[in-house]
Amino acid sequence: MRFMLIRKADKDTEAGVMPSEQLLAAMGQFMEEMTQAGVLLGGEGLQPTSKGARVKFSGGKPAVLDGPFTETKELIAGYCLIQVRSREEALEWAKRWPPLDANGEVELEIRQLFEADDFGEEFTPELREQEERMRVQAAELANAKR
Question: Where is the YCII-related domain positioned along the sequence (predicted)?
Fold first, then answer.
């Protein structure tokens, strides 16, 4: 089962306040522990919404809204993507988040990703094969650009 640990934004992340050396070390240790346990698939911090944009569709037409966005409680500052055996295991990893982050006042959201089997018969063998080809190709192209 794959889960995303979503680190919610706060006034500091939205202001672009960079983490301290101690927090970077603690986050590095946490990520290393997940790597060594074989559960980490990826994770990154995100730039503030002042450097972002939203694309909203109305009547099928896109409109771009540049950041910053005001409701920090609804914003994301970063994420970790993990693969574990259960929701409970995902929660156990989330509970180990470094307490230095946001002076111990951080909020994480845990969300399970859809897997192919979740879509039922509508996700035909042909569509599954197409998705797998796309994933392989995307990984190859990303590696080629490094």
Answer: 1-107
Which regions of the chain does DSSP assign to beta strands (E)? 2-8, 40-45, 53-58, 61-66, 76-83, 108-112
Q: Which residue has the tokens 């698939």?
A: 41
**Which strands make up the sheet holding 76-83, listed edge to edge?**
40-45, 76-83, 2-8, 108-112
Q: Taking the model in full, what pTM does it have?
A: 0.88
Do 83 and 101 sit in the same domain of this protein? Answer: yes
pLDDT of residue 71: 78
| Domain limits for position 84 | 2-113
68-74 mean pLDDT? 82
Mean pLDDT of the chain: 95
